[in-house]
Amino acid sequence: MHQPYPQHPYVPPAPRPRQPVFDSGKMRRGDWVVIGLYTVLFIFGAAGLMAMIPGFTEAFNDQESAIFGVNMIAYVVVFTAAIIMGFDALRSSFATFKYYPWVKALAIPGAWLATLFIGAAVMVTLGNPVKSENQLAIEGMTRSVPFLTMFVVTALLGPFVEEYVFRHLLIGKLSRKINVWVCVAISVVLFTGLHFVGAGSFDITSAVPYMTLGIMMSVAYVLTGKSLAYSYILHVFNNSVALIISYTLLPLFQL
User: Fold this and answer.
1) d(C-alpha 27, C-alpha 135), whole Å
2) 169 HSE (CA, 13 A, CB side)
3) Taking a C-beta distance cutoff of 8 angstroms, is the pair 212, 62 a contact?
4) Contact by Cβ (8 Å): 194, 170
5) Residues 166-197: pLDDT tens digits?
6) What is the spatial distance between Cα 162 and Cα 168, in angstroms, rounded to a whole number?
7) Can you tell me the distance from the alpha carbon of 252 to that of 250, in angstroms, rounded to the nearest whole number?
8) Residue 221 CB neighbour total at 10 angstroms
9) Residue 201 is part of which domain span?
10) Is residue 99 part of a domain?
11) A Gene Ontology molecular-function term (predicted)?
12) With contact defined as beta carbons under 8 Å apart, do 217 and 231 qualify?
């Protein structure tokens, strides 16, 4: 008589890890302080009043350096407030890389390239590509401001401030009350419009790079579980590449 084969209990496969959604929390008093500082210094242009302080402009070698000095002080002030309020959210949201880490790592340069090609295609379709005054100002500063100093402000401090305001607050926290994709639309429009504050004009062609960048970072923020860390890294990568090009390749075409 044959012995029956032993019956092994069925063990279902382990479920694949699911992307967590990071809780942005409710608006706090400190968040309103960050928004207030950002609005007053950058949107209303109060940061420019520093140039009226006797001896301030004369302390710099040229006008471009003085403008950079104004922006640097303003960004340091807002960054300090933002990092105090957002450090825990930034630290905890790095956990997004525990889920499909290679996909997310490769998506950083991949999303940047896709944004570059899409933006270029749209600009060619619209015709007559025009650089925004914001971009022209940055290019002017690269001729006067050392790379490392520009990198700290433009690729590290500035991106965190903008990601905290436009993604963490306008999408993460606002989506507690409004549909998240409506919040994405609000964020993209305001992010794009910010780069034309004080310009006195708006050109749709020159707005395309900022619009595509805003869409890319906002969608990435949502798809990675509202990860402030991921959108910040994307922004740092974008600005770092742009700065490297501005300091190395751009001067070759201006000779």
Assistant:
1) 32
2) 23
3) no
4) no
5) 999 999 999 999 999 999 999 999 998 887 76
6) 9
7) 5
8) 28
9) 29-253
10) yes
11) peptidase activity
12) yes
